[in-house]
Amino acid sequence: MRRSMSLLLIAIFAGVTPAHALPGNQIPDDVKERCKTDYAKLCSGVMPGGGRILACFQAHKEEVSPDCRDALSKIKN
């Protein structure tokens, strides 16, 4: 179960981060951990890819937890 959650989060966040933001499109584990509740609550119905998850988080920016918002801002810059 833990492995399938990890694979799901990798697939989800692959669409969140611009390709130039991180070497090799590696999403830091802390970002996955810090945003998994927000994803489940706000964006679980959004298909990953093409920046759709990021767009979902942006559409719900008032609802995204401060911890997740902080994590996302660090990988986007």
Description:
The protein is mostly helical. The chain has one domain. The chain has helices at residues 2-14, 29-43, 52-59, 66-76. The longest helix has 15 residues, at 29-43. 21% of the residues are buried.
Relevant terms:
mainly alpha; globular; 77 residues; 4 helices
What is the H/E order? HHHH
Helix content: 55-70%
Find the structural class using helix and strand composition: mainly alpha
Q: In what range is the share of β-strand residues?
A: under 5%
Largest sheet: none
Instruction: Output the radius of gyration.
Output: 11 Å
Number of helices: 4
Number of strands: 0
Give a brief outline of the structure:
This protein has one domain. About 60% of the residues lie in helices and about 0% in strands. It has 4 helices and no strands.
Furnish the topology, listing elements before pairings:
Blueprint: H1 2-14, H2 29-43, H3 52-59, H4 66-76
